[in-house]
Amino acid sequence: MRTLAIVLCLILPAPAAAQQADRSRPPALGPAPPVTPPAIQRRALSNGLRVWIVEHHEVPVVQVDLIVRSGSAADPSGKFGLASLTAAMLDEGAGARDALQLADAIDHLGASLSAGISVDASSVRLHVPVARLNDALPIMADVALRPTFPQRELDRLRNERLTDLQQGRDDPGEIVRAAFPLVVFGPQHRYGTGGVGTTVTLKSFTADDLRAFHAAHFRPSNGVLIVVGDVTADAVLPLFEQAFGSWASAGAASTAAAVTAPPQLRARRVVIVDKPESAQSQVRIGWVGAPRSSPDFYILQVMNTILGGSFTSRLNQNLREQHGYAYGAGSGFDMRRVSGLFFAGAGVQTDKTAESLTEFFNELNGMLKPIPAEEVTKAKNYLALSYPRDFETTRDIAAQLATSFVYDLPEDFFNTYVQKIQAVTPEQVQAAAKTYVQPGKFVVVVVGDRKAIEAPVKALNLGPVTFMRVEEALR
Amino acid sequence: MRRRYCGIALAVLLAPLAASAQPKLEVPYTQFTLANGLTVIVHEDHSVPLVTVNVWYHVGSGREKPGRTGFAHLFEHLMFEGSAHVKEGEFDTLLEAAGGSNNGSTNGDRTNYWIDAPSNAVEVALFLESDRMGWLLDVMSPERVNGQRDVVKNERRQSYENQPYGLASIVLDEMLFPKAHPYHWPTIGYMDDLTAASHEDVVDFFQKYYPPNNASLVLAGDIDAARARAFAEKWFGEIKPRDPVPPLDVPPAFLTSIQKRTLTDRVQLPRLYLAWVTPAQYRPGDAALDIVSQVLAGGKNSRLYRRLVYDLQIAQDVTAFQASAALASTYQIVVTARLDRKDGRTVTPQAAIEDVHRIIDEELDRLRAEPPAEREMERALNQVEASFLDGMEAVGGFGGKADRLNAYYFATGNPDYFNEDLARYRALAPGDIRAAVTRFLPKERRVELTVLPETQK
Predict the structure, then answer these.
(1) 8 A C-beta contact, residue A115 and residue A126
(2) Contacts of A377 in chain B (CB under 8 A)
């Protein structure tokens, strides 16, 4: 099914006979093994809830994910953090059990149950030895469908989160993860603030806010149950019908409040966040990237692999291997329903901050020059040939299915991925680089020791330099 | 030395379901030793078309000399920089072009490396792995040492110096182990020592500790045992053995009193570390202390979490763990204290630490006085069993089946030690937990390290 440039010949090893190793060149590769993505059995419960089942009989465990298509992007304006806190509260009291009883029941089964959010989805995830699925499912259903949002647990969790935000200020990595999107999207746009929200919004939430969010978004029509593990579809479907079939389907799910497309940046500037005595500067460079639905999806995977998406990428080779300025450097697109970030970044030693920025821009600018065809081929092979690893464990497989649900990927997505990656041409990569990598318009955020880095960074003349306090980044 | 071979592909067998499922774990393997002393272990798992090549060198930072700390780990980095037949940078380039990935890690006892690759690239992986075992020094140069020295210094900055509380673990080991003990210094090393590392150190270290007879190779995944054996012979067979590595001469490690210390750091909240020197991995007491960790800090109903974080809300987090290692283990209880109180008061960092400290001691006393309840034991054991099952899902990477086969071989001589390992936990009675706390976590012989916010100097 594939046409790989690196398929040179077919090696059939002689059984057991000692061969002489030829070290004068690397061994040739045999034909790549076929990628066989999991067979997904798509079923539905009586209330319309989709159930996607993958039978995976290697180990007697099962992963069950309930995914709903509403995450932090669905937070109402002024209520950033609501989706996150709602999810966190699901297992703090549900059905007839309080928080401690829920935890005891789950722990006793040797199961793990967690609830959380991403930008575009909320999830309740159960991982359990298959022999105990029967016992764990009703608890999971309580947590997902019948949370009670007790006030005292809300107060407790809220305080924990406020303290988390405060503690984040200790960590340069946390600070840059908050500061960079804030600079790119601004405080008004949902993407400018972390999923957990701010000190101000966290303090404002009532249990009724959480109930309302849950009621609006946790609907069968907005969700899917993903089941991966040592089960058969026919045998487990009745269990799921019993646990989730009575989930009221009345009323259409509130479609996630649409996040407006963020405006693209127009001029380069530099923001320094002072973190005195930092041993490294945390650097992020970039702007608004691309949505998950971008027709350039495959091209961007290849382009980013070349720039900063793999160990041998240009950024890592330069910043780490060539110069030793960083433990590692990379880049990435944070693809969401609506365009997220494109960024390049690293933690670099403080006294080489300016030199590192110069190298970052050398590599970013380098993407606008012709990219050798063999570099494109290497990146395509890396993506295509490593693809089976995304499907090794029950958790891996469930995560892949969840993404395909949240972003409404075509049913043949997994089966055509390799072929579509391999179809990307150097010309397409070049064209995409011109669109998505415009270093002259990127914002540069540096979290580090201002005293040590301000002068050398200013001397680079990258653009106007402004300053942000740590407390402004992690508000 | 041929152990046993079993042709079934099913890695895990589940006993008929009783009231409580008792999984029987089995990882079939073949084992043999090449003429040069390299131990080879082969495990077939054809569920995904991947092969993993996992090598353990039986050397860690414990073999370092004072003044040259961090060297075993720096050396690990150099192993990816090319060898006689692999140009600089080509190790990763060749592998990525074939869809593979790799990594390595170092601790006090050993250094491990893995390459995961599609099954058609198994010989590429073996070529790379064997070339650095046999021909690393041919192209080693002071420049390569310099390059990775800078990378490792940045790893240290990123993971320790620029991390909140990042230096505490280093200070703890210095307090727990005497100066001459192999665990006294950190695996990442001291900055000055990293600066001092020389090309000659590399040559010496390689010749002493990286011969095939001081390593074990696991080939696992989508490959049949006969091919694996032929490939192992072909790629590793001609590498020359060297003198065997003598056992470490280790001074005894034990505490005779309370060792107290306070550090300051740029952090918002104070943190308390209580630490003990405990029995080595797989020694009596080791498994019991894992259960102690579950009872103290595993989940909302665990004793310390429930009191400190859930009920009183005077702590932001609590962890307790037995860090098992070959020469001696350490047991740690780590609590980040909060300064705000439910009634709106604020307390000083010192007062917050005192509150937390008192409650930890109350809970340890309670465990010394009476064994945990049956329900607590069951909960802990079920969690341990489940984590064993989870460990069977992946073949490659850190902690995958290949890595665990090598870990078990290194520690016990038996790669398929899964059931024996699990049996240690199943054999525990509540009284054993009480006994372990009494014997191994005494109040009067331990390390007490406090980290205070800098403004509180």
Answers:
(1) no
(2) 97
